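I am still getting used to backbone structure tokens and would like to learn alongside you. Label the sequence line and the structure token line clearly, so we can match residues to local backbone shapes. Go ahead whenever you are ready, and we will take it from there:
>
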Amino acid sequence: RHGGGLRIDHILGMFRLWWVTSPERPTEGTYVRYDHEALVGILVLEAHRAGVTVIGEDLGTVEPWVRAYLTERGILGTSILWFERDQDANPLLAERWRELCLASVTTHDLPPTAGYLAGDHVRLRDRLGLLELSVDEELAADTKEREAWLAEVRSRGLLPEGADVEETVRALHHYLTLTPARLLCVALTDAVGDRRTQNQPGTTDEYPNWRVPLSGPDSAP
């Protein structure tokens, strides 16, 4: 009743979840499906009654028909710049982004944009033992993907050569305004120049998830 919108984390959970019998062997499990028509129906009914917008976090392993189903019911999806790519794995051009979404450059499961540009997320995962490849290989792949996006932003005249970190963060957010996305989001961490990750997927006590104080570029809270 006190807001204009509601964000549902991992909205795929209204459709199916991967259940495992042992946390040590997550590959041994099965998908358990839910009555999505009832769950989504209740959600949109209450949203209509409250007059709010619903945003579904539909990242990850999401079947295309699920996104279509949510779109038909007016539920916005979530589009993160670094993850938006075409069938050839190239940056998805701004004009081809979907309209019914909340678009942002980063997410709470990635470092702030300043940290992402520096590859902090790769080095953090290396320290935590979460990498599948060597740190050098991961950094090389990450740099290639990141540079492809920066080249696309430069091609729109938004990012001059030799731009510093703050200018680059601004340019990436400016790029979002070229998309048809209904809603745009700026992370508070990006607004103040923070670099530390708020939440590191794949960890519990190995990293201080949700306990990282908001800091400026100098790391001072």
About this structure: The chain has a mean pLDDT of 94. The longest strand covers residues 16-20. DSSP finds seven helices and seven strands in the chain. Helices lie at 36-50, 64-72, 113-117, 120-127, 135-155, 165-176, 188-192.
